[in-house]
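Q: Entry one of two.
A:
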Amino acid sequence: AKAVPAGTTNYLWDDLGQGFASGTVAINLDWPGWAGFFNDPKSSKVAGNVGVKVAPKGSAGVRTGWSGFHGFSVTENCPNKEAAASLVWWLTNEDSQKFEAAAGPLPTRSAVWDWDLQQAANDPYKKEVLSAFQEEAKHAFAVPQTPEWIEISNAVYPE
């Protein structure tokens, strides 16, 4: 019925995000880092007309979703563990997380989360984003801790 653009069922995350930002996709289930992008008139035709809501409850009356964030590590075989650890510290320190949080991604440090909420006091959209994801976090679970998770996900998700 041409209710959605051709090829939508084959979209990957970036395709879906660009589709939403272009106004050709009406609903986007995505990670918080896109929130600022979608409400920025330089990158999104739907800026100013975007809302972020908690995922609806399913047929069992429960909300669900997966949660987590990218992590960093220093491998056992790393030739310069001190430099690698220094990079990990820099990427995850409070100032770096504030810089990142200002662009939209959710911080992992509690102090930065509190700072981000204070920054959102005069920004209704950012406040809505943070509130929605704060509520959603109560219902989320981490992905399974199995080395084969990506392979399993890639096989199951398309089905």
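Q: Entry two of two.
A:
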Amino acid sequence: MIETSKLHPNEADIRVMCASSLDWTYILDQAYRHNTLPLLHHHVQNVDSVAGHVKLLLASHYQLKQIIGEKKMDEFVAVLRAFHERGIRAIVLKGVYLAASVYRHAALRPFGDMDILVRKEDADSVFRVLKAMDYTQSEFDRDTGEQKPLGQERLEGYEHELQHYGEFRKRSASKPVVSFSIDVHHRLNTIFDDFSYPIEEVVARATRDTIGDVPVYRLSNEDFLTHLCSHLYWHTQSLRDILDGKDAQLLAYSDIRSFIQTHDIDWTLLFDRAAATKLDKALYYTLHHGQQIYGDIVPDALYETWNQDYLSDISRSIHDRWITRNSKIKIGKWNQDFIARLFNPERSSFALSSFYEDYLEPILHRGAVLKVVEMGDPDRT
């Protein structure tokens, strides 16, 4: 699983492992959970010892991801071209950039939406471009499958509390029907976080690049890596994501490893800036776990200087900003080491149990009142 999650693995090692007795049902299940099925297909499609039915399953999944990925990439490149033609400085984040410029194939690195970062003063121009391309700020109704406009209260909540405005969505006019979603960020943290990106500085440091044949901007190497690490960190800290099994996926760690291997990183500058903005915890947490997986993410000379007791402590802590509205408050702890829980599909039960025993039960005993409000329906509790 670990070797085939790499963009450039040791092919000889993969052939040796595939020649041994492997539980392919387990491998396929884990690769699905970790979003690495396309990479698994790419690395074993020509390995003779892999059974034909396994290759067929992987090829079918890959072909589907290729159709969807290429359609999404074409659409998002068209959006980026429209921004460029109008002189809008939209900075591309995460998945679309990684798929186009690091993995160099939309099928190898699946992505759901396109994230961009803009200055607040450019938001109106961005909105006009997206609306002219038939995007609406909406969500898909789970019952009808139709797009439902976001209400004004929701839109104001997004802008005030979250990193981005309400999602812009549309569906392709041709078949197969593909849903497109764009998150327009005006910052990279929520109001509940104990850290804050200096957005003006981050935007000023953005570097020129290209996606397809379109000139674009992306974050500087150090800012891009910081954002990858902090974004993954908060997925691992979200109880909802833990329950959905989307908290710690190998693809996200592969993203970080692949970006580091293809871009020069000034490690001193990286951690100096992180310490100044209180993002160092997210960096240590994520890079420590990446180092445990791959062993070659952080330079050895640097990793050896890190405080292992501190790393062990933060590795076992869960802080959910959505539950507490405060990212400093611990809501649970892990009773397994990281690598063990990474491949444990039952880790959600451990997290939920700890949340109840270590956070919820004590505060209720102290007289707190728990109120769960359904999003968009404050009268339904």
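A: Comment on entry two: Strands lie at 91-93, 114-117, 136-140, 147-149, 168-171, 179-185, 207-211, 214-218, 317-318, 332-333. The chain has 18 helices and ten strands.
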